[in-house]
Amino acid sequence: MSKAKDKKEKVKPKSTTAKLNKKTVNTNKSGSVANLKENLQNEKEKFLRLFAEFENFKKRTARERIELFKTANKEVMTALIPVMDDYDRAKSQINNENSNEEIKGLLLIFNKMNEILKSNGLSEVEISVGDTFDSEIHEAITQIPTSKESQKGKIMDIVEKGYQLGEKTIRFPKVIVGQ
Question: Which of 58, 100, 170, 179 is most enclosed, with most CB atoms within 10 A?
Answer without folding.
Answer: 170
